[in-house]
Give the backbone structure.
Amino acid sequence: MDAGLRKRHKYIWLFLAIVIPILLILVIKDLDFSQTADTNHTTESLSNPIDQAKHNLMDAVVIEKDDARVLEMNVKQPLKSASSIILSLNDNQEIGQIEGVGTYSFPLKSEIRGIIIKDAIKNQEILKLEF
Amino acid sequence: MGLDYKLVLWNKHKKTYDKIIALGMLLYLVVFVALTLALNPETTAETMIIRAFGSLAILMLHIILVIGPLSRLNPQFLPILYNRRHLGVSMFLAALVHGAFSIIQFHTLGDVNPIYAIITSNMDYGSLTNFPFQVLGFLALLILFYMASTSHDFFLKNLSPKIWKGLHMMVYLAYGLILMHVFLGAFQQETSPFTIGIIIVGFITVTSLHLITAFKESKIDKFNSEKNSEGWLEVCEVDEIPNDRAKIFTVGNERVAIFKYEGKLSAIHNVCKHQGGPLGEGKIVDGCVTCPWHGYQYLPHNGQSPPPFTEKVATYELRLNGKKVYINPNGFEEGTEVQPVTC
């Protein structure tokens, strides 16, 4: 390397040494490190469900949590849709969005009879679960 | 060093290094899959492939990034530098598998172009924690693709080492993008202080090594020697230069290597024509200055590569006054014959 490249190299690393830690601190600050505790709580709550429905793609359970109803979902297999939304079977109101395999919690505003999983892009129904 | 362009310039050493790279990659993937099956058996095959190759690419990138500064700080690492390009291309292939499987898994089942979907499936560009991290990974993959595809000597020669090296510094941008891709993506979904810790330690190691080396090099660049009445610079005493080795000095804005060999002294420009390697950190092999990075050779008295090679570097005039070595800061044209000084 010549002097110019060496200088450029030094400034690039000085820039990275300052900017990356700032961004990382901002990101880590918002991370939730208590996932294990939450899972335990969920498992405990799932033993006393209000409503529930099971399917080979996912399980849906309504539980009582802090005096409010919460829809707990466990997506077991990836869905073949780029964007999947959850709608209430009662009034087609959107409850939330699923992005892949995993567990999700959605607060409920009212009682629901069941849910519909819909591909938001193709506007197609993927799955209907009734409690 | 080769006269014509070959797809891959393999020799005995490079073949050995490539086997080590391939075996190392395979071993990592086997261990990753075994650990995943043991600790998280519900993971799907696609997810396992995406995570295994993604983490492998990150690990390889960290190794690649520390090779440069380590070999500047300790010449024992130079043999690894010699094979860094193959490691870089292998890392790109690992990143490509990660990227391709991620695109297939997350973006090919919709009715829009998968590349368009990467950019538009999450439009939360204003948020830090919900930022569309896949875009960052995709941009990094494009940079790695560009670097892997231009890593061949054909591009190096035709772009010129200075431009080539400057463009290949984009790997640092790719590194920054990949770090943010990991922190805004994988860690948002599966928070683990252990994996975050590893990446942070990796970042601190890479950055510290680069900065230590950069400041050490700056010190050499700032070296000012005294000029005598005729404008010649006094650089050192002859005993300070080891036999068949060189000492490097900054003359004006350029670095010059003064070699001692067979009872003679010769000075040539320190920058190798191949990839800008530091010639003064190499040694005299078979009467030729040999670059420590990739073995390019130059004759010390005229800066020319031995025939049939055509590379040339600038030469400088030396004088010996007692034991003191003086250099004329005005270098000659590349490849100019200069009578060596007898010492």
About this structure: The mean pLDDT of chain B is 87.
